[in-house]
Amino acid sequence: MGYDRVYNFSAGPGQLPEAVLEQARDEMMNYRGTGMSVMEMSHRGKPFLKIFEETKAALIRLMDIPDTHEVLFLQGGASTQFSMVPLNLMGTRAAADYAVTGNFSSIAFREGAKYGTVSAAADTGPDHTRIPTQSELRLDPEAAYFYYCANNTIFGTEWSYVPETGSVPLVCDMSSDILTRPVDVSRYGILFAGAQKNLAPAGLTVVIIRRDLAGHALPITPLMLDYARMIDKDSMYNTPPCWCIYMLGLTLRWAEELGGIPELERRKKEKAGMLYAALEENPLLIPHAEVGSRSDMNITFRAQTPEQDAAFLAGAEALGLKSLKGHRLTGHMRASVYNAMPKEGVEALCSYIRSFRG
Ligand code: PMP
C-alpha cells in the first residue's frame, strides 16, 4: 500500500488487484530483461508470443475450456460483439431469440434486428428488477442462437441458472461476472466479456467460441468482425491489444494463486452477502433487484429521496468509498464488487450503510 488508494466501487473500468498493478509497475521499463516495456514490443516477437500463449493457457485452465472451443482476444469492447454475433451466426438462419433483461441486452437486441428477425424471448423492462424464469422464456426451437446477458451491470440483476435451449446455441455476455463462478463452457456457443471489470484494463474483449459456429458469416461481414478469420490468425490478423493481454495474464496468475474460480466464487458470495445483509438492516436503503435475481457483482439500491441519495454518496466519498453513484440511466446507488475488491472495502461500506441515517 502507501499509495493513498481508495476503495473503488466503479462498475468499470473497475479496480484491479494491487498485486497485479505492482507487478506491472515493476516490469514497466524493462520487461524481464528485454530492455523494453510490453507496450513497446512487437506482437510477433518471442517475448510477446510467450505472454500471449501463457495468458491463453491460463484462461483455458481456469475456466476449464474444452477443445471444442477457441479463445479469442479481440478489440472494440463488448459492444462490438453485439454486431459480431448476428453477423456471424445469422448466416445459416436469420432468426434469433434475445432475453432483454437490461440496457446491454436491449442494445444487442436492436443491433441483431439489423441482420435478421429477432424475438424477445423475455423482456423485464423498463425497471429490470428481475431475471425471467426458464418457463417464462418464449423459445424458438429453430433459432440461430439464444442471447442473454448473465449479469446486468446497470440494474444489478444476475442469472442464477443457465437457460435450457435444447440444440439452440447459447450466446452470453459475461462482461461483468466472468471469473466469479464456475461456468460449464461446453454449454455455450459463444461467451464474451469486455475486460475492464474482472480481467484487465479496457481495450480487450475475451471471446470463447465453439469452433463449428465460425465460418458461416454473412457476406457483408466486415473483415475484422469475422470470427473465422480471427480463429485462423489466432487473434493476430492485426495488432492485438498487447498490453491488455499482458495485464490479463497477470490477473489470471493472481486468480490461480488465490485458488482459482472456487475461491473467487467463495469470496464474491461472502462480499455480496455482507452487502445485502447490511442493506436489509437499514430501512432507509432499498435494494433495486428482487430477491432471487440479485447480482453478486453490482449491488444496486436507493434511499427514500433524491436528497438522501445525495447525502449517502457524499458521506461515502468522505470515507474514501468511491464511485458508488448509480448509472446515469437509473441514478441512485450501485456498489460494484468485482474480484479485486478486498473484503475490507466491503466491510467499510457495510458499516457505513448500517450507520446511514439520511
Ligand atoms: N455488456 C455489459 C454487461 C456491460 O456491463 C458493458 C459495459 N459496462 C458492456 C456490455 C459494454 O462494454 P464495452 O464498453 O466494453 O463495449
Structure notes:
34% of the residues lie in helices and 16% in strands. The chain is built from nine helices and 14 strands. With 358 residues, the chain is an alpha/beta fold. Strands 2-10-9-8-5-3-4 form a seven-stranded mixed beta sheet, with helices on both faces. A three-stranded antiparallel beta sheet has the order 11-12-14, covered by helices on one side. The longest helix is centred in the last third of the chain and has 22 residues, at 260-281. It starts with 6 loop residues before the first strand and ends with a helix. Bound molecules: 4'-deoxy-4'-aminopyridoxal-5'-phosphate.
Number of helices in the DSSP assignment: 9
Secondary-structure element order, N to C: EHHEHEHEEEEEEEHHHEEHEEH
What radius of gyration results from the CA coordinates? 21 Å
Overall outline: globular
Instruction: Report strand %.
Output: 15-25%
Number of strands: 14
Q: Which regions contain 5 or more consecutive residues with pLDDT less than 50?
A: none
Strand order of the largest sheet: 2-10-9-8-5-3-4
What is the percent of helical residues? 25-40%
Structural class: alpha/beta
Main sheet record: 7 strands, mixed
Draw up the topology in text.
Elements: E1 7-8, H1 18-27, H2 46-63, E2 69-74, H3 77-89, E3 95-100, H4 103-112, E4 117-123, E5 146-149, E6 151-152, E7 157-158, E8 170-173, E9 190-194, E10 205-210, H5 227-232, H6 242-258, H7 260-281, E11 286-287, E12 298-302, H8 306-318, E13 321-322, E14 333-336, H9 343-355
Parallel strand pairs: 1-13, 3-4, 3-5, 5-8, 8-9
Antiparallel strand pairs: 2-10, 6-7, 9-10, 11-12, 12-14
Helix pairs in contact: 1-6, 2-6, 3-4, 6-7, 7-9
The chain binds 4'-deoxy-4'-aminopyridoxal-5'-phosphate (PMP).
